[in-house]
Amino acid sequence: MIGGGQLARMTHQAAIALGQRLRVLAVTPDDPAAQVTPDVVIGSHDDLDALRRAAAGADVVTFDHEHVPPELLDKLVADGVNVAPPPSALIHAQDKLVMRRRLDALGAPVPRFAAVTAPADVDAFAAGADTALVVKAVRGGYDGRGVTLARDTAQAREAAADFLQSGVGVLVEEKVEMRRELAVLAARSPFGQGAVWPVVETVQRDGICVEVIAPAPGLDDDVAGAAGRLALRIADELGVVGVLAVELFETVDGGLVVNELAMRPHNSGHWTMDGSRTSQFEQHLRAVLDYPLGDTTPLAPVTVMANVLGAQQIPTMSMDERVHHLFARFPDAKVHLYGKAERPGRKIGHVNVVGAPGGSIDDADYVADVRNRAALAAHWLSHAEWTDGWDPHDER
Ligand SMILES: Nc1ncnc2c1ncn2[C@@H]1O[C@H](COP(=O)(O)OP(=O)(O)OP(=O)(O)O)[C@@H](O)[C@H]1O
Ligand SMILES: [Mg+2]
């Protein structure tokens, strides 16, 4: 796997059960995945020599991020390396303009968009209207970096000029009036088998995903079914191999538009580690190894994932002690820590809380209770502070 972050770390965890060894190409021996697999190649994902060393003798090469330059991927393919997803598919997760154009051509719903090669293109797109616009660097963004939500055309023009100045391609699109953000995760094997998990709701704060509710509460069955079919169709049409995440916006009138694609395990699928028969990490491996895919049935009426983000003020209490206290209060919380140093806003882990049997996704109190416990747990792990004022000594 190219990249040694938490996605590679959790993929390695799944690889163990399949009798596989996951070699990772990591930047440092301290990277989350490099800490846990014995098979580490140290190097950069934009160094062909490092990529070749990582690929040597591997059955298949896959990714924990989309930042490997396409021309290097083509070289690996020319070497005879089995690259999954293939570069021809992966480009749609690497370049937002290529993705928008292709999805548009497939008839998939996307926001109105245009390529920007000069700041004046933004004015042409706005066509005289002074409106909120979204300007995006077409490559290299993550966690909302490379995305500017501009309040008016002037601000959008400025953002476009800044991106262009730094030499990156740019696109402008309408700001979608949305109810909420959703995601649908699918997997496709080279054999052509497809599998899809239920549509989830993703809650973002400051451009970072903080919470995922699986399945998305209150989502119309027809809309959910259509989203699943859309993800499978995109996977097929693009020739995806592995997990495909389709980030969606639910518009104010209840329709769906595609935001972006990822072709790897995705934050919106972390709930599957504890809330589904098959986790996204196992499924990604099954797909790239061309095994039959696993059952994606949820194990509970609702599963909530809350990200543990590094606090502004890193607590003096050690993480070990925080985990200790957390488990004392919530024995059923499933903790996944990435072995990363704590830095403000950094994703350092997540917590899954699986709803008790007998509840229903349509029961607002039941869902709110699971969400609340996941949020309390994640905040405790990052801040060493119970937001509801809970005190263990009151329990005695
Ligand atoms: N057209 C749009 N209209 C409204 N909001 C948008 C639009 N495009 C993006 N956003 C908001 O900005 C966030 C980040 O956008 P996007 O997913 O394209 O960025 P990213 O940094 O590549 O992704 P990620 O955070 O998934 O790594 C979205 O989750 C959404 O909240
Ligand atoms: Mg996104």
Automatic annotation (TrEMBL):
It is an enzyme of class 6 (ligase). Its EC number is 6.3.4.18. One of its GO terms (molecular function) is ATP binding. It catalyses: 5-amino-1-(5-phospho-beta-D-ribosyl)imidazole + hydrogencarbonate + ATP = 5-carboxyamino-1-(5-phospho-D-ribosyl)imidazole + ADP + phosphate + 2 H(+). Keywords: ATP-binding, Ligase, Lyase, Nucleotide-binding, Purine biosynthesis. ATP binds at residues 96, 136, 173-176, 181, 259-260. It comes from the Bacteria. InterPro entries: ATP-grasp (IPR011761), ATP-grasp_carboxylate-amine (IPR003135), ATP_grasp_subdomain_1 (IPR013815), PreATP-grasp_dom_sf (IPR016185), PurK (IPR005875), PurK_C (IPR040686), PurT/PurK_preATP-grasp (IPR054350), Rudment_hybrid_motif (IPR011054). GO terms for cellular component: cytosol. Pathway: Purine metabolism; IMP biosynthesis via de novo pathway; 5-amino-1-(5-phospho-D-ribosyl)imidazole-4-carboxylate from 5-amino-1-(5-phospho-D-ribosyl)imidazole (N5-CAIR route): step 1/2. Pfam families: ATP-grasp (PF02222), PurK_C (PF17769), RS_preATP-grasp-like (PF22660). GO terms for biological process: 'de novo' IMP biosynthetic process. Catalyzes the ATP-dependent conversion of 5-aminoimidazole ribonucleotide (AIR) and HCO(3)(-) to N5-carboxyaminoimidazole ribonucleotide (N5-CAIR). Belongs to the PurK/PurT family. Homodimer. This is N5-carboxyaminoimidazole ribonucleotide synthase. It comes from Mycolicibacterium hassiacum (strain DSM 44199 / CIP 105218 / JCM 12690 / 3849). The lineage of its organism: Bacteria, Bacillati, Actinomycetota, Actinomycetes, Mycobacteriales. The gene is purK.
